[in-house]
Amino acid sequence: MARICVLGGSGFVGRHIVARLAARGDRVVVPTRRRERARHLIMLPTVEVVQADVHDAPTLERLLGGCDAAINLVGILQGRSAQPYGPDFARAHVELPRRLVAACVAARVPRLAHMSALKAAADAPSQYLRSKADGEAALVAARAQLATTIFRPSVVFGPEDRFLNLFARLQKVLPVVFLASPEAQFQPVYVGDVAAAFVRALDDAASYGKAYDLVGPRVYSLRQLVAYAGEVAGHPRPIVGLGDRLSYFQAWLMEFAPGRLMSRDNYHSMKLPSTSAASLPFGLHPTALEAVAPVYLKGLSPRSRYSEFRYHAGRKTREV
């Protein structure tokens, strides 16, 4: 039975990773700023939810005491602007990984798995991707001291996602969708596949020092994804794709809207295709969007449940 600390464990991807770790009997520590936000994890066996500030170095080192591995899933999509990135991106994507690496070394935690982003690079067009690249650099620099693995997913979909669910909700209330960057390219990856990759990597020595792209089996334009979400949810709407200048203007306006659905930095991120030719690691077979999304976009109807069960039954047969 291993003891694993999961930063960001109460979030969308985190809850799936924590559930898998608990199911195999690992003891899991999930730090969170507000314990009530992790209520869905408290009832899991072997999971300990701790109210703590992971940005405080002594606190982080204390949380890691006695752990066999750490997983970092902390990330933000928007923040204040600066060059090469603003203070919010710096704090979440650069300073925290550096602090986590130092805490792992101090607490003698031998294993660290980290969530980055597809197309992260120092010269990327967005603050998000540039800061993710600098976060990766902290793990690369520590490879002599830690067994590290980096994962770079495309956009992640699943029952609680803020991607397809958002498009479905918008089309329920809007008569027309004016869509920025309609031809932006994505290769959505299922949250269950992401969670499986993280968990399998922990015990696979071949993954030490490696970085893996995580993508699904098919590339879509943003327009195709929005249209699909509306169709499956039962309220498709006309989609008006915006040109480059209007896309930027819409992104700027949304920075002032409640909920801040988009930002100029998101617009810049979409300049790069979020795609990869890589296969999923560890012999995993990518889950098709069409096999899972109807279940949570349309609701758990008997037909949609049957379709998902039939699909996953086929997957299990192939993996045996």
Distance between the termini: 25 Å
Number of helices: 12
| Sheet with most strands: strand arrangement | 3-2-1-4-5-6-11
Morphology call: globular
String of helices and strands: EHEHEHEHEHEEHEEEHEEHEHHHH
Arithmetic mean pLDDT: 92
Percentage beta strand: 15-25%
Helix content: 40-55%
Q: Can you identify the CATH superfamily of the domain at 3-156 and 188-214?
A: NAD(P)-binding Rossmann-like Domain
- CATH architecture group name of the domain at 3-156 and 188-214: 3-Layer(aba) Sandwich
Quaternary structure type:
single chain
Name the CATH class of the domain at 3-156 and 188-214: Alpha Beta
Helix- and strand-based class? alpha/beta
User: Over the alpha carbons, how many angstroms does the gyration radius reach?
Assistant: 20 Å
* Unreliable runs: 300-312, 314-320
The count of DSSP E runs of length 2 or more, i.e. the number of strands, is: 13
Largest sheet: 7 strands, parallel
> What is the fold-level CATH name, i.e. the topology of the domain at 3-156 and 188-214?
Rossmann fold
Folded structure, characterized:
With 320 residues, the protein is of the alpha/beta class. Helix content is 43%, strand content 16%. The chain has helices spanning 12-23, 39-42, 57-64, 87-107, 127-141, 164-173, 191-202, 222-233, 244-254, 264-269, 289-297, 302-319; strands at residues 3-7, 27-32, 47-51, 69-72, 111-115, 147-153, 156-157, 177-179, 185-186, 189-190, 210-214, 220-221, 239-241. Strands 3-2-1-4-5-6-11 form a seven-stranded parallel sheet, with helices on both faces. A two-stranded parallel ribbon has the order 7-10. It has a two-stranded parallel ribbon with strand order 8-13. Strand 4 (69-72), helix 4 and strand 5 form a beta-alpha-beta unit. Helix 3 crosses helix 4, helix 6 (164-173) crosses helix 8 (222-233) and helix 11 packs antiparallel against helix 12 (302-319). The longest helix has 21 residues, at 87-107. It is globular.
